[in-house]
Design goal:
By secondary structure, the chain is an alpha+beta fold. It is globular. Bound molecules: zinc ion (ZN).
Length: 122
């Protein structure tokens, strides 16, 4: 696995940083292979979590940058797996592992605390 510098994934790219190959969120296969390459996929017998091992925010959610914006790993992983997240809905982790993006561990629910979440583009 290729280690990438993760410290600046959620902020502006510093001057002089070579551009990474851009990732299109519309290309679901590319998103899934990008996420898989940066995760530990546990067998079902061991909990079955697909655990993001790159940058996580202090809130514990995995983040990556695509199309110039920070993205939640679990939200984009779910959408790339064929899931749909309606406006105003949030994605809850049934497994309580916030770094996990296994679609079968995720549940789309209404926001219980409106306004308290970071307004990341979906
Ligand atoms: Zn999980």
């Amino acid at each position: 696995m290729t280690k990438i510098a993760s410290a600046n994934l959620h902020t502006e790219i510093p001057e002089g940083t070579p551009m990474r190959k851009s990732l299109s969120l519309a290309d679901h296969e590319a998103v899934l292979s990008y996420l898989r390459a940066r995760s530990v996929l546990w067998p079902d017998a061991e909990g079955g979590c697909w655990e993001w091992v790159q940058y996580c925010e202090r809130d514990g959610y995995g983040r990556f940058t695509a199309e110039g914006k920070p993205r939640y790993v679990h939200r984009e992983g779910l959408k790339a797996s064929g899931g749909f997240i309606p406006d105003g809905m949030t994605v809850d982790h049934l497994c309580r592992n916030r770094a996990c993006w296994n679609p079968s561990h995720l549940d789309v629910v209404s926001r219980e605390e409106p306004g308290t979440r970071i307004g990341l583009a979906s």
